[in-house]
Amino acid sequence: MTPVVSWILSPGVWRANSVFVTITGQSTNFAAGSTQVNAGVVVSNVTIINSTTLSAQLTAAINAQPGPRSIALTTANEEATLPNGFHVW
């Protein structure tokens, strides 16, 4: 089965702010130290909860372009995405 991001708790963030999110995947193998999160904003404090769930802090710069962002999670050769799954206001 192809890995996908199935859910993100928090639809987005205002510019010049941060939000903590929980991201859930299906058929994923999230692992501490090897899973990378890309959301088109600054990502920090990534915590792997289990192989399908992680939490992270997402921060939008004050000059961030408003609009949707895709969420991409990469672990080794595995990539799971959620197109337009997060928004900067």
Please, could you describe this protein's structure?
By secondary structure, the protein is mainly beta. Helices cover 0% and strands 66% of the residues. The chain has a four-stranded antiparallel β-sheet, with no helix packed on it. A four-stranded mixed β-sheet has the order 2-8-7-4, with no helix packed on it. The chain is globular, with a radius of gyration of 12 Å.
Strand content: over 45%
End-to-end gap: 34 Å
What structural class do helix, strand and pairing data support? mainly beta
Low-confidence segments:
none
- At CATH level 2, the architecture is Sandwich
Provide the CATH superfamily.
Answer: Immunoglobulins
Labels describing this entry:
Immunoglobulin-like, 66% strand, 4-stranded mixed sheet, mainly beta, 4-stranded antiparallel sheet
Topology:
Layout: E1 4-9, E2 12-13, E3 17-26, E4 35-38, E5 42-50, E6 53-60, E7 67-75, E8 78-88
Parallel strand pairs: 2-8
Antiparallel strand pairs: 1-3, 3-6, 4-7, 5-6, 7-8
Task: Describe the structure concisely.
The protein is mainly β. It has strands spanning 4-9, 12-13, 17-26, 35-38, 42-50, 53-60, 67-75, 78-88.
